[in-house]
Amino acid sequence: MKINLQTPIDYLKGVGPNRADLLRSELGIHTYQDLINLFPNRYIDKTQYYKINQLQRHGADVQITGEITSLKDVGTGRGKRLVAIFKDDTGIMELVWFRGHKWIRDSIKYGKKYVIFGKTNWFNGVFNMPHPEMELLEEHEKNLRSAMQPIYPSTEKLANKGISNRVLNKIMQQLFLETKGRFEETLSANLLSDLKLISKSKALFNIHFPENQTLLSQAQFRLKFEELFYIQLQLIIKNLIHKSKIKGYNFEHVGAYFNSFYQEHLPFDLTNAQKRVLREIRADLGSNAQMNRLLQGDVGSGKTIVALMSMLMALDNGFQACLMAPTAILSVQHYHGLKELCKSLNISIELLTGSTKTSDRNKIHEALENGDLNILIGTHALLEDKVKFKNLGLAVIDEQHRFGVAQRSKLWHKNTSPPHILIMTATPIPRTLAMSVYGDLDVSVIDELPPGRKNVKTVHRYDKNRLKVFKFIRDEIAKGRQIYIVYPLIQESEKMDYKDLMDGYESITREFPMPEYQISIVHGKMKPADKDFEMQRFVKGETQIMVATTVIEVGVNVPNASVMIIESAERFGLSQLHQLRGRVGRGAEQSYCILMTSHKLSEDSKTRLQTMVSTNDGFEIAEVDLKLRGPGDLMGTQQSGVLNLKIADVIKDKDILQHARHYAKVILKADPSLALPEHKVLRYTYGQLTKYKNIWNYIS
Ligand SMILES: Nc1ncnc2c1ncn2[C@@H]1O[C@H](COP(=O)(O)OP(=O)(O)OP(=O)(O)O)[C@@H](O)[C@H]1O
């Protein structure tokens, strides 16, 4: 049979039906190509040996030489195991097998030196190593092709089912044997020479069987670059197609609404960052192409005013605009806020949420269709089919990660032509990640806070200091300030969480009795109208304390609130903590955030709390968050390829990412459809990777 990279993995010698099934189900490896792209996630230096007396208690992978002196059966039932005593010249340890006893017994050679390799545990006063990889020392030395032994991902799981790291290694060797280690080049000659990259074949060989450290590094660099390069190519191409294919409404006028608002009604001077972002948006709106822009700005950086002024540009050109927010509370708040800002502008603004009365709803539908309504604000209720605009020119989406891409595109179909789209997010996505995740959107960043803002002073307090915290609250209220107290609410432990919230509320009402103190409470189980009522009482300053679950998290704007107390802060993620803290520090007063926790804290929780205490910078916080959780968890990343990276890491390899993006841009600028002969290989590989064979029709 003729072997090529699409050959099913079953044909590889040494694989067989069982292993093939395992490779498919556990690692998604179907073909030779898939196997070759299974990259080791680390390497162990096989020339390094440990002595038993050097072992550390926290298990690490180690390699030790020594001999087996005895074997015995221990335990019964599921705990039954075979234990070998293994010694070197510094001490003894145990090797343990839960399966394969007979095979081990039969093959052990007493008195011979072995090299064992695996993770050590500390158990009952001795070190042990479960299911070690073992080889006679003399064999080991013969077999040692390279000092660096690759360790493949998730082989621990597979080892239990019969595919150990060593087996994978052998299978990989077989693959190189059958293919003679020759693989098609997938990057252009120019790129290879400009970046001094090694060839594909050499890179693949050295990633699996590194000849030395230098070649390994070169192989890693080349493969990471390639991976990131094709993702960037894809994102930029998507963007190009979008721009050339989808015509947008052209907003050429800057008219009365915008000018009169800017000159007469703007309550403050815009920051330079706000001005810059508005210029970027204006350029898009007048470019004939449909805008798809992500507006990033830290909490409280003033995105709302930018959204409003963009909507005014739509109105000035005879179009309608809408603003969609993820929760009813936020929609209501935007509605009141924008109404206030526009009160002397003669603009009609309405609110549409799930709880809008049918009669009002009908009126809104009508006004929307005949064009009497200029701006509609609401929740995903805006997406319903019944909601029809006369001419929607701009849709602003607040907090995009709560809406899926599918919902975003639903807005498009509200018109014959898609409206311009502005997505606002306060989740500060590190630039490198934004570039790779949102590469198909244009990104604007408000990287400056309005003047006079003071950093929110953040402290961590243990529950036992609660009385002091209460005193602090009392003092702040005496100064006329308002306080948030937030409780976690996690679906899995919802019942307990509600109980904690209600207990907390009760103890606060005892501690801060009426009539001197007024307290609001808002949580997800309340009716929307009640939530709104309580929220409004707090907004108007009728209540001094707001007890809430995380419904308060995004976007709520009460500048007079100056203290945020977060209960069980260890249970919140970093970006959530930062969002919550962003609810205070929105006015000119000094604000405070108090993170309350019990004494029991995991290492990760400690890092999160320390990060919050030490910085107010959302981008810095997002970087730490990303390190703690990995990009997979970050909202929004599911939409892009970054999650499925095989070798590169958007954080650690951000320099390579930047290179990759740069080259992708330069190449596409000169040759947008990759039609030049020297780009043939890129075009071919791109087609293989993305399966978009006809894509080029749209670009050239
Ligand atoms: N240039 C400015 N000068 C002074 N105050 C400003 C300026 N821009 C916005 N503000 C005020 O700052 C506060 C926060 O603005 P806004 O609500 O737009 O923030 P945001 O970016 O939407 O933040 P979040 O994501 O936290 O909701 C508001 O009270 C707003 O009026």
From TrEMBL:
Residues 465-632 form the Helicase C-terminal domain. GO terms for biological process: DNA recombination; DNA repair. Pfam families: DEAD (PF00270), Helicase_C (PF00271), RecG_dom3_C (PF19833), RecG_wedge (PF17191). Keywords: ATP-binding, DNA damage, DNA recombination, DNA repair, DNA-binding, Helicase, Hydrolase, Isomerase, Nucleotide-binding. It comes from the Bacteria. The keyword Nucleotide-binding applies. Its EC number is 5.6.2.4. One of its GO terms (molecular function) is 3'-5' DNA helicase activity. Signal peptide: none annotated. It catalyses: Couples ATP hydrolysis with the unwinding of duplex DNA by translocating in the 3'-5' direction; ATP + H2O = ADP + phosphate + H(+). Gene3D superfamilies: Nucleic acid-binding proteins, P-loop containing nucleotide triphosphate hydrolases. SMART domains: DEXDc, HELICc. Belongs to the helicase family. RecG subfamily. Plays a critical role in recombination and DNA repair. Helps process Holliday junction intermediates to mature products by catalyzing branch migration. Has replication fork regression activity, unwinds stalled or blocked replication forks to make a HJ that can be resolved. Has a DNA unwinding activity characteristic of a DNA helicase with 3'-5' polarity. NCBIfam families: PRK10917.1-3 (NF008165), PRK10917.2-2 (NF008168), recG (TIGR00643). This is ATP-dependent DNA helicase RecG. It comes from Gelidibacter maritimus.
